[in-house]
């Protein structure tokens, strides 16, 4: 348990001053809460004693008690207020900071990371798991630090007045510590199982929600929701089983604390009957021990949760330790934008899909990449943007090996238009501004006009302030494409990677998109995964990719004058299956 506490303290590094001051306030607040009862018990003891001895009570006693009680109540509220002010928000502030750090890290990891790791695991780490730390860490720190401090103080006080009672209390505390150790061990065993179940549930929920449209269109609710419902059931079963494992230890812990309090009072009472302890001290000790031992019971929850937070911290450390492809990269300002693939090979996992590919693309040239589905066109573009690193060979831009650059400094020079456009759940203005966050309003509108989306945006009831549904769900495919082109226009990067839409858009939209694209690519180095014959024919050079290799390259005329796959492809393109034009 103390190891877990230590880890939480390391996690909150930078907040320790507030944390310890908060703990001090919490300690004082607990004593101030116990104080009035103690004072009343002390006064009662004096009244009983004076009645037994037949002596008159000091007339100042009731006023003294009343003043003391009011003072303690005020002190309690002041301390509780400052404890909350100083300590409560530390978890929230630290979790928010870590979410930002992890968000930044995820932006920099290679895309292969997301193939290897379940999206549900990452989502759970960023949301529910960090929330556990956010909500519980400070409560746990307070319960453990404050709880043990209170017990220590009461045992020391009792040792002064009545060592036998203190000894009984120590035995009870040791027994409760043994039970806590059991709770900690049980929790360490069950927390990772609980986490895995939670992650599986998050993954299943994401898949279930993403797949709902397919599920509905195929009318297969029963089959496809099975994984989600099974994950829900498994999660419930695991949590119930985990909870049952704690029951004996919880009972032992609570019993030992109660027994310590009762034992302390009985021993002190016995001493009073023997005449070795004064009655007011006995009454004070009785009131006091029940209040303090009662407040220590929450350590029980701490022991449960600390192992859970331990497992969360393991997961977060694992995420933070993720290798970044560009951690040794330099921030480079390129002066030229010619591209060279030099004997590049690459595989997803162990399966090589790009085999010893070499080609050069001069600055400001337009290159069309064509080839059958699955031949490696998108992979070549992903390698250029450093979504993945090559396994062999090298890719240079402006003569600079891209592995020696930071991803940010490389991607500053590249704008990409994908077939499947992703728009954020934000206003249209901010979605366009994503290309250049500091762009002025006039620049946003100018880019929208050039990308042929200004008119349809202005026709929307809230214009540029219209909220886009998640992923762009409330816009048509053509509208989303044009907004993404406006985004790239605003970025004004010297290299453009373009995946031409294969989905049939209506002729008017197609025309608008082509006009927007012509404005985007003017004077740039362009690589297009080309599907339209016009794009292919107008390109300065064509790369024909087949099975992860460059089968042919040249201009349309050169390639048409040769025997080969390209000419066959063009001639039979209407009938050829698997080819994209
Ligand atoms: N993330 C991935 N993990 C594993 N294999 C992948 C991944 N992405 C693509 N592949 C495989 O790599 C090969 C090349 O895929 P790629 O997407 O580059 O082809 P493509 O020519 O762009 O296809 P299309 O025209 O259909 O988009 C394919 O065999 C594909 O199955």
From TrEMBL:
Source organism superkingdom: Bacteria
Quote the InterPro entries the UniProt record gives.
AAA+_ATPase (IPR003593), ABC1_TM_dom (IPR011527), ABC1_TM_sf (IPR036640), ABC_transporter-like_ATP-bd (IPR003439), ABC_transporter-like_CS (IPR017871), P-loop_NTPase (IPR027417), Type_1_exporter (IPR039421)
Q: Which keywords does the record carry? A: ATP-binding, Membrane, Nucleotide-binding, Transmembrane, Transmembrane helix
Q: Which residues form the ABC transporter domain?
A: 339-572
Record-linked Pfam families: ABC_membrane, ABC_tran
What the entry lists under PROSITE patterns is as follows: ABC_TM1F (PS50929), ABC_TRANSPORTER_1 (PS00211), ABC_TRANSPORTER_2 (PS50893)
Name the Gene3D superfamilies for this protein. ABC transporter type 1, transmembrane domain (1.20.1560.10), P-loop containing nucleotide triphosphate hydrolases (3.40.50.300)
Q: Where are the membrane-spanning stretches?
A: 61-82
**Sequence ranges assigned to domain ABC transmembrane type-1 in this UniProt record:** 21-306
How this chain sits in the membrane, per its record, is: Multi-pass membrane protein
Instruction: Show the SMART domains listed in the entry.
Output: AAA
Report the leader peptide range.
Answer: none
Cellular location(s): Cell membrane
Protein's UniProt name: ABC transporter ATP-binding protein/permease
